């Protein structure tokens, strides 16, 4: 039964399609029938209209002739007399009287009558004939006045009743043989015919009504004629004659101006017309209606029109549409035939188009039904079968699925379908702990899947963890919730094991980071010591050569420091804490100084190092340290990996073609697109490795680290720095062909570069390298110098020779001086062996050497070389306020170096008390102090009328710190650590009067021994740090967050002034930032800080030099915290 119903359902669309197709065919057939009916109605209407128009025109012509006959009968009647005094009429009368009997003669009286023909038969007495001639003259005159030029083929006749004579106008053709008995017979017979017609109509026709006779042959025998006539009587009523018109039948039937005539002038309707008079006599039969039988048709017309109200009847006869018409009151009847063949000829095209459209419509319906069947119904049937199969398959899959599946109706939470696993893992038999998850899912709205984890309590076995993923859908036409139930018991157990393993890994990673931090500190300690010693050495008196060697040592030390800085930069970049400064700098000077620092390595490896900065580059605003870092990394890599050949560094504006990955112009609005390009002839890099180079700790070859060293962080840091400058770093390389690294930076301009030398001598450049020559000439010309390539002796007097090659046999003659530029030359020009020598990577030095070689004094003086920089002696009385004793001690030492006397206060209250006792030139106060902080101290001093400058000292990293200091009334603030130079500059700025009178002093070398005891300072620092750390540890253990933050800030401020305390300062800063986090995070920072403090203060070399309180193992109290 179910299968039968299914088959019936599948057959229903086919049957419905057949019914629809049949209905469409019926509709199309109905449209065709409607069209044919409307066309037939139109044909009938058109033919009826044409028939009415033709019939009306014939009747109008008939009425015209009848009117003419009535008028003519009156004119020729007894009341009219001929005027004898009318000379033309008299002459005409004489002409007519002179015509002999038995003859026909043409007469004419121009201006009086139309040409006429007088036909005279038997003779009559003279008196009677004179009266007859008078009637004829009046008739002729009226005929001309009425018709003018008579209509074609129509003649007017005045015929005497006795048949003796007749006047015909217009005149008959002269070629007619009219004479003798023929004339008499014609006139006599004509009179007899009219008399007979008059007698026939006397019983039915009122007197005075024009009569029609005919048709009869024309006197010329050419065509049939109809005659309209009326008897003319005298005063006594005696019959005198007949006034008549002879009208060709064709002219009468074609009159009236009927539209749609044939080329012969015959109306289209008239060709198929047949006319009868009131007696049923045939008057006219059109040439296209010759097949009709007049006698039978006359009776049919009379019968069809007998009951017509409008005088029109329609019928079919002999394959033609017949239209009958009758003129009420006139007696004439007409029948018009419209053959079917003519209908086909007139409307065959429209009928053929209709039949064609009908056929196309039927074909379209049949083809459409076929297409619907094959393209819709058959696929629909197949889809229905597939859906049935899919439903059966889905139910099978649902039961065989390895996860629990359940479909729940959202309206009433009724389970519509589920498999065995769903019923087993998460039963819904009762409202137990398995039911609330369903309520929660049903409460969710939207299409986003909902994920819930449910802990199914243990029954006979262990508890089970299941993950339920629910999503709203439609099932059986209703809203439903599809739930997928996963048994995740083993997975959750694995996650818990993984979390424990991750915790152990994090602890190991933290230990590794602490170890790296410790090792970084161990490396930095001797490195900072070396750098500090070199800085102190630079303050002593040194020879020029010694100072340059000292600069080289310092630059080399920076290379070692760079490795550690890379690690720190990478960690900052990973944490998103890398920030850029924005200060003006000269990119050309920056590039040249960087290249000079790497030149010794290039000379050592025998590499040709070239530097080509583009002339005309402006000064830029940005972070010169980071720009130098990018150049140094790219240049250092090129020198490191290039065994032979050359390394070229270019600095220029970047055109748009050099930035395929940047969809904007080279110089964006307000910025300069600076392109740093480093090209080498090294081993090259494979394409598949190039992009990986910018990943951290990645090098092109695993053996690279063993052969060349390095951490693999340089390029990664360069790309991050370039991104911060709205740029990018890219590489183009092929194995065996070297590499080209490009760094694109976008920086705002800071104005044009200052002119190195306003006046330069003419220069000739001597070198075998075309690129060096062209760049040197372009650079000199951009500086306003006349520069040419050297081709021999000096072309003009006063020209200086610039030699950029070692391969020179002899110096050309005639030059005012010679300047050798060398990669290992001094930064400032030196006169050696009769020539000047200068470094090839120092434009300013080269310009000064050219001036010196020409005997000119350089406008830009080189940096002065002195034994030590002068230290200003300000002679100020300064109140120093800081709660940390080490900070007070260090500030006292720095102020003593500047010639100032410091009075120390350990709190704001103590500072107010000291101010009451004496006055000071300036107040230096720490901002963050317990009790009364620096801002509150400043406000109280200003409230008391203190106007001296107040400078705040802060190590805070919080935003808005500077604004709060200024709002409190401070003049300036300094960030810790406070160095000697910035401190002196600040004092000069706030007290310009004292700065103007300050005397610089140079500290002699032996005075270094009289500097404050650094061991004592370190001991004091260690003592205060121990106290602060003990308090910090106690606060961390008890969760006193404000105390933690206070002691961390104190420790950070103290270590900011100590040498090599960067790591401790950073840890204290992080501790301040994380003080609002959980106690565990704070304790982790405390532990890490303890490790750094132990590494900083518990040096194993000579701890007794600054630890006075006991054995070493008793002093490492911070390590006991770990």
UniProtKB/TrEMBL annotation:
Member of the two-component regulatory system BvgS/BvgA. Phosphorylates BvgA via a four-step phosphorelay in response to environmental signals. PANTHER family: HISTIDINE KINASE, HYBRID SIGNAL TRANSDUCTION HISTIDINE KINASE J. The chain crosses the membrane at residues 348-366. Keywords: Kinase, Membrane, Phosphoprotein, Signal, Transferase, Transmembrane, Transmembrane helix, Two-component regulatory system, Virulence. It catalyses: ATP + protein L-histidine = ADP + protein N-phospho-L-histidine. It holds the Pfam family HisKA. CDD domains: HATPase_EvgS-ArcB-TorS-like, HisKA, REC_hyHK_CKI1_RcsC-like. It comes from the Bacteria. It is an enzyme of class 2 (transferase). Its EC number is 2.7.13.3. SMART domains: HATPase_c, HisKA, REC. This is Virulence sensor protein BvgS. It comes from Cupriavidus taiwanensis. Residues 877-991 form the Response regulatory domain. GO terms for molecular function: ATP binding; phosphorelay sensor kinase activity. The modification 4-aspartylphosphate is found at residue 926. One of its GO terms (cellular component) is plasma membrane. Residues 518-749 form the Histidine kinase domain.
